[in-house]
Structures are given as structure tokens and as C-alpha cells.
Amino acid sequence: MLGKLSFVLPRLFKYAFLAIVFAILLMLTQSAFAKKEYQISIFLILAMGLIAVTYLSSISIPLKFFAPGVLFLVAFVVIPIVYTVAMSTFKYQTGNYISKEQAIDRIKLLGTAPDENGTTFDVVLGKYNGELAILASDSINKRYFVSTSNNKLELNPIDIGIDENGVAQTSKDFNPISVEEKAKIDREISVTRFKFENEYFIMLEGSSTGSVVRQSYEYDQNKDQFNNLITGDIYKDDGKGNFANTANPEDILQPGWRAPIWLSHYIDIITNEQVRGPLFSVFLWTVIFAGLTVLTQFSLGLLVAIAMNKKIRGRRIYRSIFILPYAMPSIMSILIWGGMFNTEFGAINTLLGSEIAWFQNPNFARFAVILVNLWLGFPYFYLINSGAMQAIPSELSEAASIDGASPRQIFSKITLPLLLKIVSPLLIASFAFNFNNFNLIYLLTGGGPRNELDGEMAGATDILISYTYRIAFGTNVQDLGFASAISVVIFFIVAAISLYGVRKSKVLDTFS
Amino acid sequence: MQKKLKARGVASAIALALFAGVNTYPATAADKELVVWADETRGPNLTKVFQAKGDWVSGYKITVKTFSSFDALKEAVDKATDLTGPDIIVGANDWVATGAKNGKLAPITLSAAVKSRFTPNNFFDLSYKGKLYGVPLDINNVAMLYNENLVKSAPKTFGEMVNFYKANKTKLGLKAGLCVAGGGMSWGAYSVFTALGGSAYTMKNGAVDVTKAPLNPTTFANNVKTYLLGSNGKGNGFFPATDAGCKDNYLAGDVPFAIIGNWEWLDYMEKGFQMNLMPVPGVKAGTNGNMFGSVSGAMLTTYAAKHGVEAGAKDLLVNFFASTAGAVAYQAIELRPPAEKGAQAKVEFTAQVNFGKAGSKAGVPQIGAILNGTTGSKSYWDVLPAYWTEVLVNGKDPKAEAVKLNDYLNKNLQAGAKDL
């Protein structure tokens, strides 16, 4: 009995757990499908397939351990990378977010123009001889008519029932429809064109106002072009995500659509001086920032570690204090530092008795960024260095001391080289992390200062990732395609650094 | 045994999944439901109003979706699709141009009767390329507040304020003379910019005057030199180049004059300040700087048509958002100055009235097509704060920088005017 239970229970637990996982994934699939996110639906279905094959069969024991990791890796790393690379080949910016079909749909919707006077009528919606109709009133000029999509009938004021505002409410053969019915046929009444005069018709603005408009743009599906019916201009697909006037390519119809422009963004990065110039200076500062950060954090961390390695009174209290900046949420620290650096009211200028414009002067701003990052990061290197120093055999120092080496020589010839060997992978990892240290820059200086009056695009403290963010989301014109291209470039740089770090640390050797 | 278990396991998985799926079908803007998106302050207030009276448009249920912040709302709007998007967005006027370009907003034509309920200037903010995309909801403007404990009477000229600051800086421990507490160094500081002779555009007979340059660099720079610069060629401390700390310092009694926004007046009243609101006085007596009298709007989306509720959404805009009854009901809770004229006559708080008075005396329409434009590679919002920094902090020549400023603004004016 006990044996049977020990066989059944784990399996029951396994199938119950799988049932819950499948339930959640199916629910997400359905939700994604309903929102027309078909790629996500397909991925979730494939994930369910992989889970079923892995855990409901004995196909591979290692796969049972790897499958969840593989799925998360694909979902949150591989797919975003592929998507970013794909988007970097598109014109994907403000005005060009949607698909071409949607853009055509929207232009058609906007493709009407009001008459010269912007004429509107008070209308009552109803049926006239069984057909959807409006009873329209121009109470000022005492003009009343009934209009359907095909006919318009002028009415004599004496034949109609008028309310206290002079708006016709009833007329012979015209039956107003109830508010409930109006709601039911909302879709129909919003697109119905009620006859007016010549090329003009009336479209409803809600259920009680009609405006006089005419068609201004017409889509020719065969030629894939819009014709302006008023001016005669022709708007053709310009291959860059817009319908452009053939006589004046600057004149485009909005909205546009996401259109493939292949390597244009990458070519811009290389050839366009307006793009390349700021990008190069930002790249240079990013390298300097990450390098200086690692150097200063490591140096101070090491200094503190050496000091704390000595037996001094209150060492535990000092250690706790030194770890405090690391224990505090960095966002809070950054904001507090930001306030302290304020020119007029900040604590730093008050203490120094100075009027330094920390965040308005490029050099002071860079200094502030490095200083704040030093504050945030040195405790990490203090901890690392403390641990690493414990790992260096004390016999080496003792032997060197017996041989007559001075403490400085012991440190520079024995301790430091051995320490660097241990911590070098962490130094490289820290460099890669700071290469993308968005929070610090964004919260402290916002990438500035930048002299907008001189047309500067990049700020003095902008690093690649904050510059990318600014391009993608920070201005009125969001250029997600170009930002994706820069992200891809950053990806390759960071990947190269990481690869170098991995090789240097020979981490993978332990697996081979 | 194992096969039986496996089969049962799979069967329960499917059953559970179907159950879960059926019960969690994603919420969408269902037919005959009007979905309004709003931020964390407007959302709850609109919900209260619609709970108290829900029949603004008969035959439709009105649902308000509240977002945790203004930025969260903007992000959601950016990501909205035909299926998930709202029918009406209550948001900032400067979303109009982007929303229209991206095909998210749909135009609406108002009758003359509805239009007459608003000041014509209000429609500038919500228009793009000649089409109107929503109805004005409430007015956003700033005004200058003076601390009656420090200053005995309202200043008549800009120079009077500067002289007061210079004379009392040490004695009273003043941290600044005039600072921007609300609206930032471009929107909020427009009052100072215009008080000293600058502008982003000028209006003539209710239209933008494209023939007139935004500013005369020489005149403007001379005023900057006279009133804002010290002997070292940098700011004299009267007008800080950033807005950081302004509000706290004003509330602490360390700044005599501050430009505050009409959304934050309660903070000042709670600290005992009277609502001594006025436009920033100009360099000559009887003149004053202008402030942007922008409006927030309730905007129609293209999603409404996709959801089959376009007529209902337009009715909600007219029957509630653009009506006296709707504006009164909403602003009784929201406490901002209403844009609708009938509701304006019924506001109760002194601050609302005084902001309104300052706005009607010195307000100018905020025209996104010009101000957001980047024809000269930079928008108004970028270059005005840069001017303050370069001149007041970095000590650059005020005239040379004013020439650059004028150049950017003029390019954006010429290009933006075509989109009106």
C-alpha cells in the first residue's frame, strides 16, 4: 500500500502541476489570440508542445532540467533581440507606427473636407419610408429637410413639429428612432452619408448634429494611390512608409506606416555626420565613464578593504557604515545626490560656499556622475576585495617579508597581481554593466547638459543607452527604428566585452 | 497505471485550462460601452461623476479606466491598438498632433452652438491641420503669486521686483527673487520670457501672425542684461535658471515671487498664502508677460469607430465634456478652472477665479503645431530652457544666444503655421 502510494503521489503532484501550467499557458494563448497577437499565441503553443513532450514522455532527462530555462531565454532574450534587429530595418517612428492597411483605413476616415463655412445642422435621426434618415434643422434660417442616403426633401415649416430651440422633431412620414435603437445602429449611422447638395453630403457628428462635408481623398486600390479630388494631386507610396504627393514629395498624407528601409539606419550611423558626430562623442564618453567608474570604484573599494583588513577598534561598525550606500536603493541615493548638487539650493554648494552649476557645466556634470557612481559602487568592490584578499595565502607575504620586501613591495608585487587575477572577471562585468548604466544618467543629469541653442543632439553625460532612450522616447518625434539600430550596435559592443570577460575568466573551461 | 494517470493528468489540464480561459476572456471595449481613459487624478473624479449620473448618453454604459500616472496613461495610449484602445482619452493638448499623425485620434466637428460655449483660442490646442480632435476640458495656466508677508503690494513693473530683491536679498535671506514653481522653464517661464519682450509667436485678429518674428534679439537681450544679469555677466540671482527647489523655497518664505500652476494652488493655501495671483508685470508699467492658456482635452479616438460606438462617443463629448452641466459636475470635484464658459461662471474658489482672471488678461493660445515643431532641429520646449542656462549660468552673450533662439523659433513658426 505504502509502495503504491509512493508511486502514485509524486505523479499526481506532477500532473496537477502540469495541469496548472497548461491552464495558465492556454489562458494566455487565448488572451493573446483574442488581442490578435498571433506571434505570442504561436510561441505559447510551441512552449506547451515542448513542455508536453519533455515532461509527459521520457525522451530526454537533461531536457527536463533545461526546458524552462530555454523557454525563458527564448521569450525574454532571443525574441526581443530578434525583434529589435528586425525593427532596426524599418521606418518605425512617430507617424509611422501602424500597418499599411491600417494607414489606408485611417486616411480614408480623414479623407473628407467640410464646406467653406463649416456648416452644421441640428438633426433628429429616424426612418423615412423605412430608410435611415435625418430630419435636419437650420433654426436660424428656418430651413428644414429630410435626407436619406439617396434623397433629400425640403420641408415647409408648417409641416413639421418644432421644439423650443427651433429644432424640428417630427414630420410627415418621418419616424424618430429611440435612443436604444440609435445605440444599436451606432456603427451604421457613423458611416452613412446623407444626401445634401452637389458633391457635398451630411455626416453625423454624434446623433444630434450633422456636418456638411465632401470627399477630399479617394483611394485607388488598383494603382495603390490616393487622389485628392479637390486639387487633383496624386499621392503614391514613396517606399518610405507614406503616400507622398508626386508633384511635391515633401507633402505626405498622415498617418504613414512601418515600412522596411533595410540598412538605412546603419548607413546613417556610419555616413550621416549629424548622426555619426554625436554618436561618436557619446560612445567615447561611455567608454571613459565605464572605465573611470570601474577604476575609481575598485581603487576606493581596495583602499577601504586594506584599511579594514587591519585590526582596528570599531571595525565592525566601520564595515557596516561602508556597506550602507550599497544597501540603500540606488534610485533613492541618486535622487538625493541630485538635490544636493542643485546650484541654488543644494547642500554641496552651501557647504562649499560656492555657486557651481553642477549640472549645467559639462565637466562638473561629468565629475558629479562619476562621484555619485563611486559612492554607489565602492562598497561592492570593498566586499569583493575583502573576500579576495582572504583567499591570498598569507605565507606569500610572510616569505617576502622574511626576504626583506617592504610592505609597499609586497602589495604591488604580490597582493595586487594576485587580487587582480581573482577580480578581473568582475571588473570586466562591472565595465559592461556601467556601459549600460541607464538609471544613474537618466535620474541624475538626464544626459545633460546639452546646448540646445548650438543644436547639440547628445548631452555631455549621455551614454549610449540614455542617448538611445532619448531618441526613442525622449522627444516629440520618437524614432524607434533608429533607436533599435543603435541598440543593436550597443549589443555587439557589450557582447564583445562580455565574451572577452568570459574568455579571460575561463569560466566556460570548467564545463568543457 | 502510469498511462491512466497520464491521460487523466492531460484531461484535467485541458479542463482546467478551458475553465480558466472561459472565465478570463480579455476585457475589450465591448459594443455599446464607451470607454474613457484618464490619469490618476481625473480618472477617479470622472468615475464619481458617472456613478452619480450615468445617462449622459442614453443607451451606452460609460466606463472610466484610470491609470496610475499621467506617464502611464501616455504609455498606454502609445501602445493602444484597435482592440485595446479607448473611445475617448482625457489628456494633454500636446498629444493631439502626435495622436493625429499616428492615426490614433479622430476628428470631430462641433456645431456653432457647442463651439460658442468655449473661447475660440481653446480650440487651437486641440486642432491639427485644420481639424479638431476633441473638446476643451479645463484650462491649464500659470500665474505669478507674491508673498504678502514680504511684499506689501502687487508689483507694477518687472524692474520693481528686481529692485525689491536686490534691496532685500541679504536682509531677508532671499534665495531668489522670482522663480518658476509650476510648469517648468519653458511652459511656466513663458511669462518671464514674454515680460522681457520675447515670444514664440504673436497673435493678430485671432490668428498667428507669421510675418512678425518671435522676438527682437536686441531688445530682448537688453532687458535680460538689465534685469537678470549681474556684474560678472551671469545671473544676478533674481531669476534662477532651473525650477528645482522653487516651490519649497517659496513655501518657506525665502522667495517673494513665484510662478505657480493652477493645479497646485491648494498646496499654497494650506500653508496660509493668499491667492495674490497676477500676470508677471512687464518692463513698462501697464504691460505684462503672457502665459500659455492651454487646455486639457477629451479627445475622440479612431478606436471608437472600430468599436462601433463613434456616434455615442461624439455624443458623450458634446453632452458631457462640452456641456455646462457636465463641466460643473466634474469641476466640482476636480477643482480646476473649467474651459466651458457656463461652468466658469459657477466656480466657487478664489484661486480658480483669480487664475481665470490672470488667464483672460494675459493668456495666449498654446499652439502645439508651432511649439512642438522641430523644423529647426529643436522645439520651443528645448531652446528656451537652454537660453536661460547658457546666459544665466554659463554667462554667454545674451544677444548672440537670443539671435539663435529667434532663429529656431522663427523656423518652427513658419513651418508650424502651415499645419494650422
Question: Quick recap of the structure?
Answer:
The complex is a heterodimer of chains A (512) and B (420). Chain A is of the alpha+beta class and 512 residues long. Chain A is built from 17 helices and 17 strands.
User: Architecture of the largest domain in chain B, according to CATH?
Assistant: 3-Layer(aba) Sandwich
CATH-defined fold name of the largest domain in chain B:
D-Maltodextrin-Binding Protein, domain 2
Mean pLDDT of chain A: 91
Evaluate the radius of gyration of chain B.
25 Å
Question: What's the number of helices of chain B?
Answer: 20
* Rounded average pLDDT of chain B: 90
Spatial gap, N to C terminus of chain A: 46 Å
CATH architecture of the largest domain in chain A: Orthogonal Bundle
Structural class per helix/strand content of chain A? alpha+beta
Main β-sheet description of chain A: 9 strands, antiparallel
Q: Which ranges of chain B are low-confidence, i.e. pLDDT below 50, for 5 or more consecutive residues?
A: 25-30
CATH class of the largest domain in chain A: Mainly Alpha
Shape descriptor of chain A: elongated
| CATH homologous superfamily caption of the largest domain in chain A | MetI-like
Oligomer: heterodimer
Write the layout of secondary structure elements.
The complex is a heterodimer of chains A (512) and B (420).
Chain A: H1 2-34, H2 38-55, H3 61-87, E1 90-91, H4 100-110, E2 112-114, E3 120-128, E4 131-138, E5 143-147, E6 152-155, E7 160-162, E8 168-171, E9 174-176, H5 179-184, H6 186-191, E10 194-195, E11 200-204, E12 209-215, E13 217-220, E14 225-228, E15 234-237, E16 243-245, E17 259-260, H7 264-271, H8 273-309, H9 315-327, H10 330-340, H11 347-352, H12 362-391, H13 394-402, H14 407-435, H15 438-444, H16 464-474, H17 480-505
Antiparallel strand pairs in A: 1-17, 2-12, 3-4, 3-9, 3-12, 4-5, 5-6, 7-8, 10-11, 11-12, 13-14, 14-15, 15-16
Helix pairs in contact in A: 1-2, 2-3, 3-17, 7-8, 8-12, 8-14, 9-12, 10-15, 12-14, 13-14, 14-17, 16-17
Chain B: H1 2-23, E1 33-38, H2 42-52, E2 61-66, H3 70-79, E3 88-91, H4 95-101, H5 112-115, H6 121-125, E4 127-128, E5 131-132, E6 134-140, E7 142-146, H7 158-172, E8 178-180, H8 184-188, H9 190-195, E9 202-204, E10 207-209, H10 217-227, H11 246-251, E11 257-261, H12 265-270, E12 277-278, E13 291-292, E14 294-300, H13 303-306, H14 310-321, H15 324-334, H16 341-344, H17 350-362, E15 363-364, H18 368-371, H19 380-393, H20 398-417
Parallel strand pairs in B: 1-2, 1-3, 8-11, 13-15
Antiparallel strand pairs in B: 3-14, 4-5, 6-14, 7-11, 7-12, 9-10
